[in-house]
Amino acid sequence: MTTEYSTKRQALEMGLFYGGFEDEKLRIEKLENLLKSKPKKEYMGFPQLKHPIEVYALNNPKGDKVKIGIGTFREGYELWLIHPKTGLSLRA
After folding, report:
1. What is the pLDDT of residues 5-59, one digit of tens each?
2. For residues 57 and 84, which has the higher predicted lDDT (pLDDT)?
3. Is residue 18 part of a domain?
4. Is the pLDDT of residue 78 over 70?
5. 4 and 76 in contact (C-beta within 8 Å)?
6. What is the pLDDT of residue 1?
7. Where are the alpha helices (H) located in 1-92, listed in sequence order?
8. Within 13 Å, how many C-alpha atoms sit on residue 1's CB side?
9. E strand intervals along 1-92
10. Out of 20, 56, 57, 73, which residue is the most buried by the measure of CB atoms under 10 Å away?
11. Domain of residue 66, residue span
């Protein structure tokens, strides 16, 4: 079942945590930078989506590539975890 986040910020912060940003100080710093950036917009291969997903691509502290998607969902936001090589995506 998809988790609904009240704000885009909450969804993105959880995505960063899942993506390997376990240190809170580093996660908040990265979060602030991402919120100021202009993410790529994609439909994730799902033409039935009413709004595109904002996709953020970055390297985590271990140097692994991470892709996080944020989209509107019900009254809030949803989080997508995206495999950087295959594009396989999962709503978390």
Report:
1. 999 999 999 999 999 999 999 999 999 999 999 999 988 777 777 788 999 999 9
2. 57
3. yes
4. yes
5. yes
6. 64
7. 8-18, 24-36
8. 3
9. 40-42, 53-59, 65-73, 76-82, 89-91
10. 56
11. 8-91
Entry field: residues in the chain: 92
- Rounded to whole angstroms, the Cα distance separating 7 from 63 reads 27
**5 and 77 Cβ atoms separated by less than 8 Å:** yes
CA distances (Å), 92 to each of 18, 19, 36, in order? Answer: 10, 12, 23
- pTM summary value: 0.88
H-helix segments, 38-85: none
Whether residue 46 lies inside any domain: the answer is yes
Residue 8, φ and ψ in degrees, nearest 5? -60, -40
Identity of residue 85: K
Q: Any idea what DSSP says for residue 56? A: E
Report the greatest alpha carbon distance in the chain: 37
Write the single-letter amino acid at 61: P
